[in-house]
Amino acid sequence: MKNLILLGPPGAGKGTQARTLCETFGFVQLSTGDMLREAKEDKSELGTKVANIMAKGELVTDDIVIGLIEKKLASEKNNKGFIFDGFPRTLAQADALGNLLKKINYNLDCVIELYVDDEKLVQRIIGRFSCSACGELYHKITKPPKKPRICDTCGSEDAFNYRQDDNENSLKIRLLAYYRDTSPLIGYYHALNKLRKVNGLGSVNEIQDNIRNIIL
Ligand code: AMP
Q1: What percent of the chain has pLDDT over 90?
Q2: Ligand 1: does its nearest atom lie under 6 Å from the Cβ of 11?
Q3: Average pLDDT over residues 78-94
Q4: Are 65 and 89 in contact (CB under 8 A)?
């Protein structure tokens, strides 16, 4: 069993890499962003509470996201390991994750930092969209669907979804939150000897190979 964290700014490719690693190795992806978007869509009490914060690009409070992860760790059993995508994002979250894993006797094997310069992040984020039926990720310029309006993976028609926070204003705030609150985790995991760095520029397959070489 392997448990990994994918760390990196918005648009670094964490979601894309997590999906591919799950397909190949049977890991379970734990994305707090996806969990929060689900809560928003279900119009649950939690979803309504966090909708504004997410639209602005700010961070949701630690207790909310730690609670979501704790619940998932308790309900998802018998798998090849977890990929934490977009969690932890603060030092308090990192401490909480360490304690949660210890409680259930799981190890954190490694933290992969995907690094990409800011200019590239903006290009990647402005123009990305996904299939709301199967979650496949696309980009207007770099990865359009083969047939317009139809998902290559599941064939759904007109089911594409643009994230509300993928705009230049929110992105500025999300980047600020990354450098202010999340990037200290690079030092934190380096000190624990868990950190590995992977260049987030390049094709999805190249990056995937580099990650595989680290985790296998
Ligand atoms: P993501 O899909 O990971 O880019 O997350 C989208 C948004 O959800 C973020 O901009 C935050 O508002 C919120 N979010 C997701 N994960 C976390 C987290 N671990 N801590 C705080 N806020 C989060």
Answers
A1: 92
A2: no
A3: 94
A4: yes
